[in-house]
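Example record

The entry below shows one chain as it appears in the dataset: sequence first, then structure tokens.
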Amino acid sequence: MQEIIIAISKYSIIILMAFYVYESFQAIRDTDDLKKRKYCFKQTFIMYLVHALCYTTIYLHTLQDKIIIFYGVQLIYFILVIEICKLIYKKYNRPLMNVMCMMLMISFTMLSRLSYDKTIRQFIICVGATIVAMTIAFFMKKVKKMREFSYIYAILGIGALSLVYALGAVTYGAKLSIDLGFVSVQPSEFVKITYVMFISGILYKSQTWKSVLLSGVLAAIHVVVLVFSSDLGTALIFSVVYLFLVFMATGKYSVLFGGLIAGSGAAFVAYKIFDHIKVRVAAWIDPWSIIDNKGYQIAQSLFAIGTGGIFGMGLYEGMPNSIPVVDQDFIFSAISEEFGAIFGICVILLSLNVFLIFIRTAFKCKDDFYRLICAGFAVSYGIQLFLTVGGAIKLIPSTGVTYPLLSYGGSSLMSTIFIFFIVQGVKINEEDE
């Protein structure tokens, strides 16, 4: 009987996920408020059902009461987040909130399967970040001068990255985090926010070459410090974000194409200088010839995705822990192995849904500062998604970038939740004004 329930749950989760994605795109496509509410209601119902089926499967495999308790605590969290936001922010973006909750549900499910203890830590960080983030929209409404602090954002960002370069711990060839003893913090995740804010703050006032050059110098300092720290994945994200924000502010294609050519040259130089980049490129070109060492991680990722096939092996039926750092860099591979290719594509489409909501919010903004920060966060999110999934499926060399909301990592989770609520704040303030 237990095996039958698990099998039914497996296929039900895939079908429900496909319906959820459909409703998500319908919710952002339709402009009629009544229809949008109906789509959001169906989204919410499916979301809770998928979550329940996932944890039913986990419990049947583990038979541990703590799984039921943890599921109940999560359920309370998600209900409270949606209902409190509905209560205090009448004009918040419900489709975006639903997708954020769904992505978190998938994350907690997969992380519970990989490491229960890590999931508990991730959930505690998630709750704390959400409590803080819920005040962001109110803060943005009261503090209109936040756009005036461009140079402070730049100084804070450069200072935080320089601190990592000076004191950071080396992880897989790069200085990424600072160990505070009781917790490890990755400042670059939070600098993604200040970075977009400083560029937007300069360019919304003026799009002259002087403003572009000034913002470019400060952006370049961010990128150079990241390069010295060997955090090339984040450096790439920052570079692309800057180019697109300048292009959006000025409308000059010469800036965009010139920057892309310069970036390609910089990538070639980085390949020549950094040994760990050469290792990742070699593993990308032919992981099978070096599978015993340098190509092991990407090879295991491909094995996992291939083994999962269309419908997946099912929760606890695969071997995702055979992939090194699976809960961070290769969480998509673990999801694809146990939930299947259809589910994996649905996850990508949900992320695309988030990107589109960010972009739509940007283009609906009458305020240029709000428009630029939403566009900057959209590009940052989209590039991070491309790097993560592309590295997992061997489309591009692995960059060590996490999957927003899905991967294990407190700093990444907190900064992403903050970004989601900043976009919510923009939407609320624009409608109020």
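Notes for this example: Residues 33-62 form the longest helix (30 residues). The CA atoms of residues 308 and 337 lie 4 Å apart.
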